[in-house]
Amino acid sequence: MRRVLLLSLLAAAALLAGAWATLAPPSTRPPLATLPAVPVPAGNPMSEEKIRLGRMLFFDPRLSGDSSTSCASCHVPQLGWTHNDALARGYPGHRLWRNNPTVLNAAHYTRLMWDGTLDSLEIQARSAMQAPVEGNGKASMVEMRLRFIPEYVALFRQVFGDEWPQLDHAWQAIAAFERTLVSDPRQVPFDRHLAGDAAALSEPARRGLALFEGKAGCIQCHHGALATDEGFHALGVPRQPLYDSHPLVQIAVRWQNVQRDVPQAVYRGLEEDLGRYYRTREPADIGKFRTPTLRELKYTAPYMHNGAFATLREVVDFFDAGGGSVPNKSPLLKPLGLSEDEKNDLVAFLEALSMERPLLMEAPVLPPTLPLDGSGEQCEQPVQGRI
Ligand code: HEC
Ligand code: HEC
What we know:
The chain folds into two domains: 4-16 and 24-34 and 185-238 and 280-351, Cytochrome c-like domain (Cytochrome Bc1 Complex, Chain D, domain 2), CATH 1.10.760; 48-178, Cytochrome Bc1 Complex, Chain D, domain 2, CATH 1.10.760.10. 36% of the residues lie in helices and 1% in strands. It has 15 helices and two strands. The site of one heme C has 27 residues, from helix 14 and helix 15. The site of one heme C has 26 residues, from helix 3 and helix 4.
């Protein structure tokens, strides 16, 4: 009750401030499209060797504090480059408070994370490995570790001209690798349909596309090549039960709020993920999250910022009911009155935005840690990070 009251007050304040988001009118909306070539920042050009180094580092748990956790521990190739936990695991002893998104096609976003707080893959990689609850890797120690891995020393020298591996270059190499993790349009039925293959979409998927762009109104927020406006909306996704039942999750939620200097009066009453509010401090942004891409959903369940839904059908049922109930709820969500067949058609269309086969990748063999002169004993050899 207190929570609802507080949210209502905050929402009323926001209304007075006239802070409602404005949406692109239909005429200026980019249509659903095939992904263009991946954007590459001028400061981090791609090369084959850089990508090879980035791939090794992505899988290397020695970037984390206790050498247990790599990027691939949470972004697992066999699990759609994400994880099937509703809320992501954290560094040992921690739980995270959000569902982890896939890194597939993440290179196409201009705003990263559920609340859009980060702008580049390079910065994201650094923050993932250094945050106490994720990689917990102390920069100076991790950099020293890299310097005792002769194969990395040679590769950093070749790729970046480093005398000794520089950690900032590790994040650049990882980002370059991530820029190769994109959908192959030849394998995506919807992209083949756009390319003129009349048989690419099944009948249900065709009907689903018409609903998506018409009666169901999904296109209002899910448009363009990634099927997202990269805007922020509150849908009223149900509360994640682990927020109330799991002590480590409760600690995570409260810590994230304290960490971000949210006034006690706000977070104490809610014990919630406030979403876009963290970036803007506008009460109108409480509970808003970045619209995610709808590509590769077949492989990335569960869904939503808090993993509240296990299947695409549950997501469609949620939108059919007009979303949940929160004070800042998007005015675009209304009960849709979809029939069972129409719901199945929408799911068929969503599935047609995924590759027919998942993008799998073997973990690379990780190079050993050795004394600097290359002689003598090897360290305990790197094992793949836990998943
Ligand atoms: C302990 C689990 C964990 C580890 C380890 C981890 N991630 Fe993540 N990753 C997450 C979670 C959870 C999020 C979403 C967090 C948020 O929105 O606040 C995320 C978000 C991302 C995103 C943004 C995707 C999007 O849709 O905006 C990228 C890219 C990413 N991670 C790459 C990496 C890389 C690269 C590494 C290693 C350097 C890494 N992650 C390590 C759990 C993890
Ligand atoms: C008002 C804008 C808006 C509309 C309209 C909308 N969505 Fe979304 N969609 C979002 C946002 C924002 C999220 C993330 C919400 C969250 O996690 O709290 C989302 C999440 C999703 C997800 C989960 C993706 C993932 O990776 O977790 C799916 C699937 C989805 N929407 C499909 C649809 C379908 C199908 C429709 C039409 C019936 C639709 N959306 C209409 C904004 C919208």
